[in-house]
Amino acid sequence: MTWPFAAVAQFCASSIITRNASICNELIERAASQGAKAVFFPEASDFIAESTAQSVQLTTNLNESPFVKSLQDSARDKRIWVSVGVHEKSPSPSKIYNSHLLIDDQGNIVSVYRKIHLFDVDIKNGPRLMESDSTNGGNAILDPIVTPIGNVAQQTCYDLRFAELSIAQRHRGADILTFPSAFTVKTGQAHWEPLLRARAIETQTYVIAAAQIGPHNAKRTSYGNAMIIDPWGTVLARCGDSIAPSLAIAPINLDYLKKIRTEMPVTNHRRTDVYPKIY
Ligand SMILES: O=C(O)CNC(=O)[C@H](CS)NC(=O)CCC(=O)C(=O)O
């Protein structure tokens, strides 16, 4: 059996939505031409705004977004699944959702995850970001979605730091955890790869982590290092240091995943008589 390939994307979004759309659609074409069955884009691929006000002003409903429509068209034309982070209107006029869409190879949006944990931090000599100024948090952990590469479970960026979500999604049947992200440089250097590898190792799942890279505007730069990790914690593929749009590709081997889980059945060893089962 040859195993299906996944592609993870890395680029630098600006506040110009049409430009970001061209980059993503070009990468979808490239991923499909390399034989990938699914391609994963970063958080906020539609735009990175220069202010809270601009972020709210640029945001539409999903069914009114030319960015989303163009990715749906590309997914259908190229017969490839697409995971992508975008902004979405919420019921409150001054706040949005930070959403993660899964689009199937017919161009249908099959799942919309709304980021649960909001990045409100003020780090000395580091970033100060108050995501909750512009964003409402979601309230649901989603079930994994069956795709040609395996069961894909959606999260977003800062959610990575809350292992409960990954454990819950593992219990619900995830083969692959996905973290579309725009990590800051300071936190990324310290935490990005160890957190991703920890989630892969402790849940024995593949981890696909798309990332924004480089300077979006005068105030904001992202860490990059998009990567695909296997259930043993090995980094199978990663994007390089260039801020030019790029892809990294790896096979998703569910026999290998089963082998890892059989040889060391950590999920069966959980002491849910001592602490609660997360589900
Ligand atoms: O701003 C947008 O439009 C999109 N949202 C983001 O980029 C979010 C909120 S500012 N970034 C993160 O969650 C970074 C997390 C991070 O860097 C960490 O956990 O260390």
Task: Characterise this structure.
This is Nitrilase, putative. Keywords: Hydrolase. Residues 3-254 form the CN hydrolase domain. It comes from Phascolomyces articulosus. GO terms for molecular function: hydrolase activity, acting on carbon-nitrogen (but not peptide) bonds, in linear amides. 27% of the residues lie in helices and 29% in strands. The chain has 279 residues and is α/β, with parallel strands linked by helices. It has a single domain, classed as Carbon-nitrogen hydrolase (Nitrilase/N-carbamoyl-D-aminoacid amidohydrolase), CATH 3.60.110. The strands form three sheets. Strands 1, 2, 3, 4, 5, 12, 13 and 16 form an eight-stranded mixed beta sheet that branches. It has a six-stranded mixed beta sheet with strand order 8-9-10-11-14-15, covered by helices on one side. A two-stranded antiparallel ribbon has the order 6-7. Strand 9 (150-154), helix 4 and strand 10 form a beta-alpha-beta unit. Helix 1 packs parallel to helix 3. The two termini are 32 Å apart. The structure holds N-(4-carboxy-4-oxobutanoyl)-L-cysteinylglycine. The site of N-(4-carboxy-4-oxobutanoyl)-L-cysteinylglycine has 17 residues, from helix 5.
